[in-house]
TrEMBL record:
It comes from the Eukaryota. Keywords: Allosteric enzyme, Carbohydrate metabolism, Cytoplasm, Glycosyltransferase, Pyridoxal phosphate, Transferase. The modification N6-(pyridoxal phosphate)lysine is found at K684. It is found in: Cytoplasm. It comes from Coprinopsis marcescibilis. Its EC number is 2.4.1.1. Its cofactor is pyridoxal 5'-phosphate. Belongs to the glycogen phosphorylase family. PANTHER family: GLYCOGEN PHOSPHORYLASE, GLYCOGEN PHOSPHORYLASE, LIVER FORM. InterPro entries: Glycg_phsphrylas, Glyco_trans_35, Pyridoxal_P_attach_site. This is Alpha-1,4 glucan phosphorylase. The lineage of its organism: Eukaryota, Fungi, Dikarya, Basidiomycota, Agaricomycotina. It catalyses: [(1->4)-alpha-D-glucosyl](n) + phosphate = [(1->4)-alpha-D-glucosyl](n-1) + alpha-D-glucose 1-phosphate. CDD domains: GT35_Glycogen_Phosphorylase. One of its GO terms (cellular component) is cytoplasm.
Amino acid sequence: AGKEQWPRGEEEVWRAGIRGLDKTVDDITKSVVNHVQTSLARQAYNIDDLGAYQAAALSVRDNLLVNWNETQLNYTKKNPKRAYYLSLEFLMGRTLDNALLNLGLKDEYKDGVQKLGFSIEDILDKERDAALGNGGLGRLAACYLDSGSSTELPLWGYGLRYKYGIFQQLISPEGNQLEAPDPWLDNQNPWELPRLDVTYEIRFYGRSERSHDGSGRAVWAGGQEVVAVAYDVMIPGYGTKTTNNLRLWESRSKRGFDLNSFNAGNYEGAVESSNSADAITSVLYPNDHTSFGKELRLKQQYFWTAASLADIMRRFKNQNKPLAQFPDFVAIQLNDTHPTLAIPELMRILIDEEDLTWDQAWTIVTNTFFYTNHTVLPEALEKWPVPLLEHVLPRHLQIIYDINLFFLQAVEKKYPGDRERLARMSLIEEGQPKQVRMAHLAAIGSRKVNGVAELHSDLVRTTILKDFVEFEGLSKYSNVTNGITPRRWLDQCNPELSALITKTLAVDKNVWLKDLKLLKGLIPHAEDADFRKAWAAIKQRNKERLAAHVQSTLGLTVRTDAMFDVQIKRIHEYKRQTLNILGVIHRYLTLKVMTPEEKAKVNPRVVFFAGKAAPAYYIAKLTIRLIVNVAKVINGDPDTKDYLQLYFLPDYSVSLAEVLIPASDISQHISTAGTEASGTSNMKFCLNGGLLLGTVDGANIEIAEEVGESNVFFFGHLTPAVEDLRYQHLYHPVPIEEKCPALANVLNQISSGLFGNDDIYEPLLNTIRQNDYYLLSDDFDSYIAALAMVDEAYQDKEEWIKKSINTTANMGKFSSDRAILEYAESFWNIEPTPFK
Ligand code: OX2
């Protein structure tokens, strides 16, 4: 451990100039004012909230950079094995509040900006969300980065720096979703650090010529070359100095996006419009759970995986270790199949550029990659048409064919003559055109494969990858149940509850926020009436905060003396927002025929929906339209408006979730059994003391195991029944009037024009009347019964609060710290690498 050499100049002079962390309010105000003056080139007298936000953010960034630099230096010195999380989506939300919390400087900044004449709340509110993701998959990646830094793991993220994040959702007067671009970088992004010196050249198209020397090598040349430029985002750990890196790539031509084509209404067209270099990272694809086979998307995937691998390889090579040791220093997690091209790309590098043999390369590859599957829905399993791959990535297609050949030879050896099995397992699906099955490639190229909740991992093993489990053995096919960061999803979004928990557990908050099982210490307090009162008062204030938000953003008055019932997630048939809105209509129709005496006993309810639909997903968009128009009728009906209110909150985002979740009494997670891989908002609601109404699906099951079945409201058919029910729908259909009269009545009321008098909703209603693939008619009655049980339970306020407390108290398992440590220990074999 020798002393470092100063490369030039006088060490003392350097040391004296090095910036330390801000500690006092005085340090902070000086730094903020300095940024107002210099970085923003503005004067004290003309600074507004946005300017104050920017200056505060830049000063926080300076602090993050100090830790970030030391973290990277620590890794360079100790050279631990590192893990890389490759994700096309990182749904980060806002950063300032989280950075202040993690740095432990929130109070100091609050005081500091106050001295400068601003309120911290107003400043925090000026930040735009970084919405580089569609939903759960992208938010999971963001939670994992937070936990990676908080547990001091050498974990980096790699993604794309989209100029436009997920579209902004507008609702037209008729109730239609419109999509507008999200130019989130317009006010500059203080949280990123352009690294104009970190660049790689990425090739597309061209020709690949195999050598004739029997080595298997090839030369890939010609085509288009595009430059990848790195932008680094600092990821601070909570209560640690570890500040990891998220590296996002921007594409540039080796030598602009057409904003005019970006008008609401032709979002998809605009996405596809350009083939130039900078188009590659211009926009996040707004589809969730679908695979479209579009060339620009393929280019995004390759651009990002190739740049990331080149970067990882450069870092590895700086160590001068033999390539065979690559997997001893590098673990790469594939977040879904989106980065699967990294497998043939690493083969290409090792064979064509590093002169390894096929077997040497394959050994390295299959010890480096790990693959997480997030869905078993067939429409979400990625497939790339062979002709497209051949055109865009000719060398990679050759490698994929070679992988397939060797793989199928091994399968044939184990199951001689089993041609059907070979066809099922092949990387290539026959057809016009042939397609590459990315999940198969990801599975055979990885060391471990996992699903995201117990039930889902079982389904992966017994359905989509069944043949692979039989062939390769069960031990490779594993589970890591998802988690969420309790920093953002409790302490930040629900500060009052966090403070009450800290006081009650009588430990410092940075203890329980990093050891979430300590929440169990709340259990005895559920029996304490004063504690329950404090608990309920916080829920009430969170409802008022939400109501104030709705008032100020939408101009609508929400009553707060009612049960708040929330369903917020992407709009998708499998998530069954339709079941929820049909249930609301059922409740409305029931209220309409009640006597005043009957109504007096009714538990008033406010139902909230939020979520985006993929721009081309017609049925999902119709669902939004139905919800909006039902809301108009219900909220305007004097007979019912005191008992039932309904809101569709536009433009769902991480920030909106942070207001909605703490205000919820009950939240709905009602997917058809076997379709929701995990769900993560279910965990967020329960952590905040909201109860769960759901199907026996995804992580709902494990939540119930932890909090106790008596604290959740389950309904509906179970996963093993689903296939049979679907079969019956197809071959022995029973008319809906017979099977489920209550549902038939609701559908008929919609058809008769109660919520608009044209046939606009018929295509949506027909999905239920005809195939009913998602089993609404099978689950409707038990859903209505479960809603009634929720009402009944809510009448006993004290019991309800006990359930709420016991729910929070038993959610410790779902910290993303637990999940990331499972990945670190059982997959990646990396260790916490702290420094002083
Ligand atoms: C989502 C899954 O639908 C959700 O159940 C899960 O909680 C989340 O990923 C994180 O694992 N795209 N998004 C998902 O899957 C896919 C594909």
